[in-house]
Specification:
Strand content: over 45%
Radius of gyration: 16 Å
Strand order of the largest sheet: 2-1-6-13-9-10
Shape: globular
Number of helices: 1
Distance between the termini: 20 Å
Helix content: under 10%
């Protein structure tokens, strides 16, 4: 889900990739990630496994960094414990407020990728909501990619 950084109300919008088939429209489980001077991306991760109480966030943009070095992406933890879905109108209207900076992903020609966060608490059944955007250190970044749920590139939560 994307947020226009100039929109003070932080309205959410989401791109979809659909295509027609003989049986009807197919909506693949792809998510659009955009980090630019105008747009940030909000992503939610659910801790489903019982006993999985310690998690890490991994950012692997190796496939997308051909011309984007140096790059600095801020990762914000958002103030939300409920699912954000277009099917839940009260949760879908605007992005939650930023709670705190979670970390900053930085890449230059000498960086080791992927970036893996420090471990953090993630109780079973909880939702973690993050916002990804260009850091003020390098505000003119431009990353734009689609990620499938099973892809090893992009964002992952373990």
């Amino acid at each position: 889900m994307q947020v226009n950084v100039l929109d003070s109300s932080r309205r959410l919008h989401e791109d979809t990739r659909q295509y027609p088939t003989e049986e009807g429209i197919v909506y693949p489980d792809d998510r659009h990630f955009i980090f630019s001077s105008e747009t940030t991306t909000v992503a939610q991760f659910r801790s489903q496994d019982y006993g999985m109480e310690r998690c890490t966030l991994t950012i692997n943009l190796t496939d997308y960094l051909f011309s984007q070095r140096p790059l600095s992406v801020d990762v914000w933890e958002l103030d939300s414990s409920t699912e954000i879905s277009r099917y839940i109108p009260s949760a879908w209207a605007t992005a939650p407020q930023r709670r705190k900076i979670f970390g900053t992903f930085e890449a230059d020609d000498n960086s080791e990728l992927p970036w893996i966060s420090n471990e953090f608490s993630c109780p079973s059944g909880s939702l973690m909501t993050f916002e990804f955007g260009c850091s003020s250190k390098i505000p003119e970044c431009q990353i734009d990619f689609w990620q499938h749920r099973s892809s090893q590139s992009g964002m992952s939560y373990t």
